[in-house]
Amino acid sequence: MSGTMQILISVLDANDNAPVFTQSVYKASIKEGAPLGTIVTTVTATDADDGENGKITYSISSMSGNTLGIFEVNEENGAVTLSGKIDYEKRRTFEINIRASDEGGLVDSCKLIVDVIDVNDNTPDIHIMSKSNVISEDAKPNTVVTMINIEDADSGENGKVKCSINDDIPFALQSTSNNFFSLFRVKAQDGGSPPLRQTPTTLLSTCIG
User: Fold this and answer.
1) Which of 12, 34, 163, 164 has the fewest CB atoms within 10 Å, counting from its CB?
2) Taking residues 153-177, what's their average pLDDT?
3) Are residues 78 and 43 in contact, defined by beta-carbon separation less than 8 angstroms?
4) Tens digits of per-residue pLDDT, 83-101?
5) What percent helix, strand, coil does the chain show, rounded to 5?
6) What's the CATH class of domain 20-117?
7) What Gene3D superfamilies does the database record attribute to this sequence (predicted)?
């Protein structure tokens, strides 16, 4: 005589799998002056365990330099947001180490590299290197009146400066080297007899960047 019976065995999950990021290095970019709360990127990790064993919590473990507090990560979904002011002229790249941990203390980490994009937020600065306070009315053409240096802290096209002076005065502006300009006195006279010359009392210049 024999009999049979069915036994159902439930396998309980153990926390034997650590979280794993989908990428070891993430890259993102953000414009300087972006409003606080701007989402930079989202990091993602998975955990093969079930239930609470597979629940992942995200956190920032370290940042390069003294920049803690500029970025923060949502502990539930991995969204990295801007929480402080960034300035391209002060810092152009941030490296952030982010950790993913499960309920059992198993962890994985990844690196996030954030590049700051320059915006045109700096006006050109004009520095007078040398100048003549007075000039003779019979000074020869191409006499250097003033040497100026132009600086713009922005990069690329945002930092390229074009200088000009108003057209109704007998002076000319000439670039002598990178961001250095010379202001010359030029001859201006009419075709009368005797010819008349103009001696300006003011000088206006404009630099646009």
Assistant:
1) 12
2) 79
3) yes
4) 999 999 999 999 999 999 9
5) 5, 45, 55
6) mainly beta
7) Cadherins
